[in-house]
């Protein structure tokens, strides 16, 4: 029998414009999460997408 993940909440990263899903490590701070990765968080000030 296949294991199916429940539907998880998604957000769009303001730096790379890619969607990203909720992760267990963000369980207590999901409302504050804005960026999909540390790389996007660091490049937010430059405004230059890394993709």
UniProtKB/TrEMBL annotation:
InterPro entries: UCP037205. PANTHER family: DUF2256 DOMAIN-CONTAINING PROTEIN, GSL3115 PROTEIN. This is DUF2256 domain-containing protein.
């Amino acid at each position: 029998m296949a294991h199916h993940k429940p539907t998880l909440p998604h957000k769009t990263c303001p730096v790379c414009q890619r969607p990203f899903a909720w992760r267990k490590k963000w369980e207590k701070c999901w409302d504050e999460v804005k960026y999909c990765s540390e790389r996007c968080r660091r490049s937010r000030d430059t405004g230059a997408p890394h993709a």
